[in-house]
Amino acid sequence: MPTLLLILNGCVMSDFSKENSISESGNDPNFMIVSNHDKGFSAFNRKVDVFGIPIYAVYNVKDDRLLHAANVMAQYLDNDEDGKVDNPSVLDAMKDNHAFMIMWESPDDLNDMDEPEDAIGQDLGNDETMPKWHTNGHRGRFDASLEEVWHIISHAGYASAYPEVFGETPGTLLTNAMDQARGGQFLTIPPHYPENAWYTYDDDTCDYSCMATEYFYWAITSLLGAQENRKGEVSDEWQLYTPALLKEKDSAVYRLLTTPEYNLPQTLPNGVYRPVSK
After folding, report:
1. CA dist 125 to 66, 201, 246, Å?
2. Entry pTM
3. In what order do the strands lie in the sheet containing 5-8?
4. Residue 107 pLDDT
């Protein structure tokens, strides 16, 4: 599925009905939904803060979907759930990049978005956020929060914290592995991928950097088991849908993702973040 990474500059304010600027409270033990008044985000009436990273939502986004996205982000960042971020350098990079997420109910909601200065954002739809996917055996409609939340962490976090490793330009460890996965280094979408390619994303709106972001997502979620039941859905774009296939076929990215130095997630988020002291 194509993703929208918002790299924003400048500041254009827009009007938003005051009746939507109401305080909301959730029933999550770790996160509170609060009224939003942040400059540049007037179209979003409320938000949740996750380790200093805001997730904004428009009025019609359901509370449980907003809280689910917050829990997924927390589990990606604090994967061992000890109450502390696993890789502080990644979180620092996200904060330096003013990373944020926005949740919409209709794609038209994005048309009303202001443009906060010098920020990197990622969008996520209400109806593509599927908390129940985690309790039905990872079957049914996929929980897109696993993809979109990871995109903002990888793009605004890992790529900046480790530019020579996870950077999204040609020549990094990540993109070198991606070039192998695509059967060559293609700065634009090729007319046809080589037969030996196992990563064959063909959205022509996705540039090389975007391709790297998508590749990182496919690799890490396959390693964590998110794609195991999705062969029929994803095989036109990604063929290494199990941890075993990833290890066997894409040894370069497998070694990268399992290098302890980078403190990458080892467990797939389920949307239930329960930190305990260790």
Report:
1. 10, 21, 29
2. 0.90
3. 5-8, 119-125, 100-104, 53-57, 46-50, 34-35
4. 86
